[in-house]
Design a protein that fits this description.
mainly beta, Methylamine Dehydrogenase, Chain H, 6-stranded antiparallel beta sheet, 5-stranded antiparallel beta sheet, 61 strands, 37% strand, globular
Length: 749
């Protein structure tokens, strides 16, 4: 049976498999404010020591970008004006603060061992108890991922009690926009239902503390597929959508469960995606598609069931399968769905995966007899989040619209989620982002320049590269263009010429670009190696900005030879001696020096001829680990630090000829440098690592002899092992990349 962990239980130790550690603290503080003052320092070699008197507290905030991730669900509370919640596929859950017009993160307390719980599969509200909130969390259902969990709160997500499940959930898998898959029974607030992907329907009779298979539920569990895609209450009856073929909708009876008769059939009604009940009209609306989505849908429909008469009506706004004005196939499914609690017969439904004609919202006021496309008259204002123009002149109305909610107290207050933001309107005409406080990007690269207006340049998954002229507003220039990138794979700055920056990634017209103004504007490389089309990897720029070293790693892990350019990307030459797929690192003081770590052989390679050739130096270092990071200390030649996951931290002061293991920490996942402390002659070192049983964000001001923990149990953000860097101009300020909670930055106060 699942375990309900008592308050005050001891934290679990590190988990090499990534599975949740049973025994972690059950009641955990959610992030109840945008920023918080925190202080949990470490004594030397200790991860959880008491706070020394000379340690200053840290304040953590989120750098503003404007969403950037897939919002998979939004619910207004039916009993409390202005109260709403949102869920995301990898970035946790949020509560709407209507007074401040922003979202408050609720799951930042989930730590390193619980990284798989940052994806929220479903959320549920209790109409009779407004302060109760339930989350079904679990990002992946794969064998290498841990089981899911239920988080339950009695104070709107400020604190949580956790129940670990014996099944897996899949908040970042196909079908993640369906639902909700979690429901409080309308007849009894103590009873909850949980629809799983591969383990059927589960039931709890003690408000989520324990779970068991629902008696009599007829659909057979499957190791693949979608399972229960949606749970909805229609009066006192619970309906369960089924996405694995056969009967697509079941409902509760006095004796158990039954298949709903008269169901729509055919490919357009294969998977129930969303459902909403019009209480006054006694009609249950269901959106369908031929696949779970958000990708891969080409057909869909909308139907409604009169729950009094049992009569089904096809109310599909537009049939997929036509052609657009340019002759493209207009294929799509249907996704987000909401009904107006104040106006019977009024509903809104979203198309999904409609790339040719662009997705829209259809609204009806007559029970589905006629529909109007809201996109056709919409006025979009994305001035608050300029990246939503995607390098063009006009923003898109949306895509992946599977989260859709109508305010039960205001018929014109509509919110809908996309693959990158939340849009909202108060008049059904003017739409703008309503995403303040919600940041979901997966951060891959960070640079904090030593000079210039921007203190930060970031490289993200899906969104490319951003120049942060401020940290408290979305970057005014939006995402970097010429070319526009999807995901960034490389970002580098010339140490002696900081106005020169280069970036690489998955682009639309080339996969590499350079900047001569510190990252504000960009131009594409004049040419690129052929392999860059399919495998753009990390890049290095020599200290004097004269030499580029570009490495290539295919998405399937295949490594390729590195290439060199000494004419700003006009021509490229293969480097046979460069270790395939390695991340190149430029020496910050000597323009002729480059380094690369061969993870397969456990050897450090160096070049003294501006990257023309590489030779092995130190060998016998850790190999085979899935995560390595080689970092050069700023302003010094040959001062290298090697972060090697569970093997810890190593340092070389002779350009990689030899390395010494740093004994003050046993695990190091990512490492960076910032401005030295007052009176210190070496930069501050920041890392995500461990000196004891807890993985934490650490700072050292004494050359890694001792470490201070600078985050706390309320600010952990799941997996944070990709990138960290300090600010070279402000001692103590650190920038941390998360995998789903954007860029976190902290400062001592």
């Amino acid at each position: 049976m699942p375990v309900s962990v008592p308050v005050g239980a001891s934290p679990g130790g590190p988990s090499v498999s990534g599975t949740p550690a049973v025994g972690r603290r059950a009641v955990l503080a959610g992030a109840a404010a945008v920023a918080a003052v925190t202080a949990l320092p470490l004594a030397q070699g200790t991860a959880g020591a008491d706070t020394p008197a000379n340690t200053r507290p840290y304040r953590w905030r989120t750098a503003v970008i404007g969403g950037t991730g897939f919002v998979t669900g939004i619910l207004f509370h039916p009993s409390v004006r202005g109260l709403a919640y949102a869920r995301t596929d990898i970035g946790g859950a949020y509560r709407r603060d209507s007074g401040a017009n922003r979202w408050v993160p609720l799951t930042d307390h989930l730590g390193w061992d619980d990284w798989n719980l940052l994806g929220v599969e479903a959320l549920a509200l209790d109409a009779a108890h407004p302060d109760r909130l339930y989350l079904a969390v679990g990002t992946y259902s794969r064998p290498w991922a841990g089981n899911g969990a239920i988080l339950r709160s009695e104070d709107r997500g400020v604190t949580w009690t956790r129940t670990d499940l014996t099944v897996k959930l899949g908040a970042n898998e196909d079908g993640r926009g369906t639902g909700e898959r979690l429901l409080v029974d309308p007849r009894d607030s103590d009873t909850l239902w949980l629809g799983t992907r591969h383990d059927g329907l589960l039931k709890s009779t003690d408000r989520g503390a324990t779970w068991a298979p629902a008696p009599g539920f007829p659909a057979p569990p499957s190791e693949s597929g979608q399972g229960v895609t949606v749970l909805v209450a229609a009066g006192r009856t619970v309906y369960a959508g089924w996405g694995d073929g056969g009967t697509t909708l079941h409902r509760t009876t006095a004796d158990g469960w039954e298949a709903v008769p008269g169901l729509p059939t055919g490919p357009s009604a294969k998977v129930p995606v969303r459902a909403a009940f019009d209480v006054c009209a006694h009609e249950l609306y269901i959106s369908y598609a031929d696949a779970p989505g958000p990708n891969g849908q080409s057909d869909g429909s909308v139907h409604k069931l009169n729950t009094l008469t049992g009569r089904w009506t096809d109310v599909t706004p537009v049939r997929p399968g036509g052609t657009t004005s340019d002759g493209s196939a207009d294929t799509f499914g249907y996704g987000g769905l909401a009904v107006d609690a104040r106006r019977p017969g009024t509903a809104v439904v979203a198309t999904n995966n409609r790339w040719a004609a662009v997705d829209t919202l259809y609204r009806t006021t007559d029970g589905g007899r006629t529909w109007k496309s809201l996109k056709d008259s919409a006025v979009l204002d994305v001035s608050e989040t300029p990246f939503l123009k995607w390098g063009g002149d006009e923003p898109k109305f949306g895509w992946w619209i599977q989260a859709l909610a109508l305010d039960p107290y205001d018929s014109r207050n509509l919110l809908y989620g996309t693959g990158a933001t939340i849009y909202g309107t108060r008049d059904l005409v003017h739409f703008s982002p309503r995403v303040r406080g919600l940041e979901e990007s997966a951060v891959r690269r960070l640079i904090s320049p030593p000079t210039g207006k921007a203190h930060l340049i970031s490289g993200l998954g899906d969104i490319g590269v951003l120049y942060h002229d401020t940290l408290t507003a979305s970057p005014s220039g939006g995402m970097a263009t010429r070319p526009v990138f999807g995901s960034a794979t490389g970002l580098a700055q010339a140490a002696l010429v900081p106005s020169r920056v280069v970036r690489t990634g998955w682009g639309d017209h080339g996969n590499g670009a350079y900047s001569t103004d510190g990252g504000r504007t960009w131009a594409p490389f004049a040419a690129q190696p052929a392999i860059a089309e399919d495998a753009p990897g990390p890049i290095a720029l020599s200290a004097d900005a004269t030499t580029l070293i570009w490495s290539f790693v295919h998405w399937d892990g295949t490594r390729h030879p590195g290439h060199r350019s000494d004419d700003n990307g006009t021509t490229w030459t293969e480097i046979p001696s460069f270790p395939k797929g390695a991340t190149p690192v430029a020496d910050p003081a000597d323009p002729a020096l480059f380094y690369a770590y061969d993870t397969e052989r456990g050897a450090l390679y160096a070049s003294t001829d501006s990257g023309r050739s590489f030779t092995a130096r130190a060998s016998g270092l850790p190999s085979g680990d899935t995560q390595f990071q080689l970092v050069a200390a700023p302003g010094r030649s040959g001062d290298l630090w090697l972060s090697v996951k569970w093997n810890g931290l190593y340092r070389s002061t002779d350009g990689g000829a030899s390395f010494t293991k740093v004994t003050s920490c046993w695990a190091s996942y990512t490492l960076g440098f910032g401005k030295a402390a007052a009176g210190a002659d070496y930069p501050a070192i920041y890392q995500v690592g461990a000196t004891g049983p807890t993985t934490a964000v650490l700072r050292s001001d004494d050359l890694a002899r001792t470490w201070t923990r600078i985050n706390d149990d309320a600010h952990q953000w799941g997996w944070t092992g990709e990138v960290i860097t300090g600010d070279p101009r402000i001692h103590g300020r650190v920038y941390l990349g998360t995998n789903g909670r954007g860029i976190q930055y902290g400062e001592p106060v």
